[in-house]
C-alpha cells in the first residue's frame, strides 16, 4: 500500500544499475556524514574548518574562498555541460537542468560577492564534498534523461517543485546575505546572527537549502533525486545540530529557545 502510493509520485526506476547504486550510495553516505557531524566528527569547513584537523592525512589548508569555489564549480559545469551533452529534452528535464545550474551559479556568486570569510578549509574535506556535488548533479540529470521515455508519474509535482525551489533559493540567499552583514571588512569574529528566521533557528539557510532541494526533487520526480534530497536532509540536520551546540559553547548569552533547523521543533 505504502509502496503503491510512493510510486504514484515518482518515475519507475529505469533499468540502470548505476542510478540504482547511486541512489543507495547518496542516501547512506550523506546520512552517515550527518550522524558523524552530530557526534562531533566534522567536515573541515566554515566554523569547523580546524576541528579534528589532527586526523587529516594531507593537512593542506585552502582559503575559504578558494575552497568554496572548489566545492561548487565542478557541479555548476556539470549542469551547464548537460545542455550540450543532452540537447534534446522534455520540459521537465529542461527545468531540472536549469534549476541545478541556477542553484550552483548562486553559490558561486555568493562566494565571489556576498560571503565574508574567516578561517579556511582542509583539502581532505573539500575533495569529497566537491565530488559529492558533482556526482549528484550528473546523476540527477542522467536519471532524468533516461526517464524521458518512461510514463509520467500519476501525480505531477513539477509546478509545486518550481515554487518550492524559488522559495528555497530565495530564502537561502537572503539568510546568507544577513550572515555577511554580521562582520565588517577584515572582521573575523563570530556573532550570534539576527533577523529573518535566525531568531527561531540558528541555521535557516540550511532549512531553505532543504526546501530548495525538495523543489528540485519535485521537479525531477526520480528515485535518485528523492534519495539525494533525503540524504541531504539527514546531513543538514546533523550539521545544524552541531552548529547550535557550537554556539551554545561559545556564547553564554545564546538564547536557549533558538532551535537548530526547524522552528520550535528541532
What share of the residues does DSSP label as strand, in percent?
under 5%
Estimate nothing, just give the exact number of structural domains.
Answer: 1
Largest beta-sheet details: 2 strands, antiparallel
Measured distance between first and last alpha carbons = 30 Å
Q: Using only CA atoms, what is the Rg? A: 19 Å
- Give the H and E element order: HHEHHEHHHH
Number of helices: 8
Shape by Cα distribution = globular
Overall average pLDDT: 91
Helix content: 55-70%
Number of E-type strands: 2
What is the topology, as strand order, of the major beta sheet?
1-2
Question: Which stretches of 5+ consecutive residues score pLDDT under 50?
Answer: none
Find the structural class using helix and strand composition.
mainly alpha
GO biological process, one term: lipid metabolic process
Transmembrane segments: 69-88, 157-175, 222-242
Domain 3-oxo-5-alpha-steroid 4-dehydrogenase C-terminal: 157-266
GO molecular function, one term: oxidoreductase activity, acting on the CH-CH group of donors
Could you please describe the fold and organization of this structure?
The protein has helices at 2-7, 17-38, 64-85, 91-114, 123-146, 158-180, 204-220, 223-250; strands spanning 61-63, 120-122. The protein has 266 residues and is mainly α. A two-stranded antiparallel sheet has the order 1-2. Helix 6 (158-180) packs antiparallel against helix 7 (204-220). The longest helix has 28 residues, at 223-250. It is globular, with a radius of gyration of 19 Å. The two termini are 30 Å apart.
Amino acid at each position: 500500500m505504502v509502496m503503491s502510493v510512493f510510486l504514484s509520485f515518482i518515475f519507475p526506476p529505469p533499468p540502470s544499475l548505476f542510478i540504482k547504486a547511486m541512489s543507495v550510495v547518496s542516501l547512506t553516505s550523506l546520512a552517515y556524514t550527518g550522524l558523524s557531524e552530530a557526534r562531533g566528527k566534522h567536515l573541515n569547513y566554515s566554523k569547523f574548518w580546524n576541528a579534528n584537523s589532527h586526523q587529516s592525512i594531507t593537512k593542506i589548508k585552502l582559503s575559504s574562498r578558494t575552497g568554496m569555489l572548489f566545492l561548487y564549480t565542478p557541479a555548476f559545469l556539470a549542469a551547464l555541460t548537460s545542455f550540450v551533452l543532452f540537447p534534446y529534452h522534455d520540459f521537465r528535464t529542461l527545468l531540472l537542468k536549469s534549476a541545478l545550474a541556477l542553484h550552483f551559479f548562486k553559490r558561486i556568486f555568493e562566494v565571489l560577492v556576498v560571503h565574508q570569510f574567516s578561517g579556511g578549509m582542509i583539502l581532505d574535506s573539500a575533495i569529497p564534498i566537491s565530488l559529492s556535488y558533482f556526482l549528484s548533479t550528473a546523476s540527477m540529470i542522467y536519471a532524468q534523461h533516461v526517464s524521458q521515455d518512461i510514463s509520467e508519474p500519476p501525480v505531477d509535482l513539477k509546478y509545486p517543485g518550481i515554487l518550492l525551489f524559488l522559495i528555497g533559493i530565495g530564502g537561502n540567499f537572503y539568510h546568507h546575505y544577513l550572515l555577511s552583514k554580521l562582520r565588517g571588512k577584515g572582521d573575523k569574529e563570530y556573532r550570534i546572527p539576527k533577523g529573518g528566521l535566525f531568531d527561531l533557528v540558528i541555521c535557516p539557510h540550511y532549512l531553505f537549502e532543504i526546501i530548495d532541494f525538495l523543489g528540485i526533487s519535485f521537479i525531477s520526480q526520480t528515485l535518485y533525486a528523492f534519495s539525494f534530497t533525503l540524504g541531504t536532509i539527514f546531513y543538514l540536520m546533523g550539521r545544524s545540530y552541531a552548529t547550535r551546540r557550537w554556539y551554545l559553547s561559545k556564547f553564554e548569552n545564546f538564547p536557549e529557545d533558538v532551535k537548530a533547523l526547524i522552528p520550535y521543533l528541532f
